[in-house]
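tool_call: predict_structure(chain=1)
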Amino acid sequence: MICCIASKGRPDTRTYELFKTADIETYHFVEPQDFSHYKSQPNVIDIKFNDRGIAYVRNFILDWARSENEQWIIMCDDDVSSFGFYDGKNHKVGAKIWHDILQKTNGLPFEIIGINFRQHAWHEKTKISVNKTFADVCVLLNTKNLTWRFDETFEMKADRDFVMQTIKNGFGIIRFNKYFHESPDVGTNGGGLSENYENKSDTQWAIKLVEKWNPHAKLTKKSGRIDAKIDIKRFAKDNGKTVK
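tool_result:
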């Protein structure tokens, strides 16, 4: 198991240190225009093109991982600051949680394995969810079983579209609700897709997502933004997939 971090405009990212302390090798995937700025980071890989969007770099990572015979990869954002679990109180224990998660899921068929946001882990009623909710920011992927690709027509919302594809084409997503990651609120950290959120250009991608996954998706207002609300549970049931 390795960790793959796509990074844009954040050469001082320290997320990899969380994985280093857990003995998980980390690789950074950056655009050619940023490559020289990441010299202080370990294992920096040039993704060959600039400004091709998040779906492009996600696909690049998947192709690269398969070429390196890496079946299990953690695909993580570059601004994660902690990992942990909740058992009545929060325990920040670092990226070693991923060793536990891999051990729990190694024999299961799910292609995407996710964890919760720190601020939501405490109120979850169940330890796991199967095809009931999305997982964002940091996920474990089984590259051997992923034969579909991120939709590169999405500049944003590609990760959510990929979850929908995974439920449709595979077994889907399992999320460990009591394990968590911590990172800044979406669009508040400079670099990455922050400029897109500042310009509220994510609205057009929410509209595109709703159009693609209608009738299981609709537009909604969230924190002053227009977003896509997807009934992932109903979609999974309609596709004959396990829901738990």
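agent: The CA atoms of residues 168 and 239 lie 6 Å apart. Proceeding to next step.
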